[in-house]
User: Which sequence fits this backbone?
C-alpha cells in the first residue's frame, strides 16, 4: 500500500513535469517562431543508418535558397514516411542562421505530445490516489 502510493506520487510528479516541459517548449517555440521564415526545399538525399539495436536513423539532406544564397546538403533533423529524394518540402529557416532549419510540424507535435501524456499520467495518478484515500479512511 505504501509503496503503491509512493509510486503513484512519483507518476504524478513525472506527469506534472511533462506538462510543464510541454508547455515550456511550446512557449519557447512560439516566441522563437518570429526568427524563422518558411522556405521551399528539395530533399537531396536520405541516408539510412542503424544503431546498435538495429533501429533505423534517417539522415535527410536538403537544398534550398534564402536571400539569394543557395544552401546545399543541409541537415534536416526530421524524417517521415512521405519523404523521398527529389521531393519538394516546406522548411522553417532561421533568419539569423539559415542552416538552422526544421519543419513546422516539429514545432507543435513534441510540445503537444509531452503535454497530453503529462495530463494522462497526472489524471490517472490523481484519480487513483483519490480513490485509494477514500477506500482506506
Assistant:
Amino acid at each position: 500500500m505504501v509503496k503503491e502510493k509512493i509510486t503513484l506520487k512519483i507518476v504524478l510528479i513525472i506527469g506534472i513535469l511533462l506538462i510543464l516541459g510541454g508547455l515550456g517548449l511550446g512557449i519557447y517555440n512560439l516566441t522563437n517562431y518570429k526568427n524563422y521564415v518558411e522556405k521551399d526545399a528539395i530533399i537531396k538525399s536520405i541516408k539510412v543508418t542503424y544503431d546498435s539495436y538495429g533501429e533505423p536513423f534517417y539522415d535527410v539532406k536538403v537544398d534550398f535558397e534564402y536571400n539569394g544564397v543557395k544552401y546545399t546538403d543541409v541537415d534536416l533533423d526530421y524524417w517521415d514516411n512521405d519523404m523521398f529524394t527529389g521531393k519538394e518540402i516546406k522548411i522553417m529557416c532561421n533568419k539569423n542562421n539559415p542552416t538552422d532549419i526544421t519543419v513546422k510540424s516539429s514545432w507543435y507535435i513534441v510540445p503537444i505530445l509531452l503535454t497530453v501524456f503529462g495530463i494522462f499520467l497526472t489524471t490517472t495518478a490523481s484519480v487513483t490516489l483519490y480513490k485509494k484515500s477514500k477506500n482506506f479512511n
About this structure: The two ends are 13 Å apart (CA to CA). The chain has one domain: 2-135. Residues 71 and 129 are 55 Å apart (CA to CA). Residues 2-32 form the longest helix (31 residues).
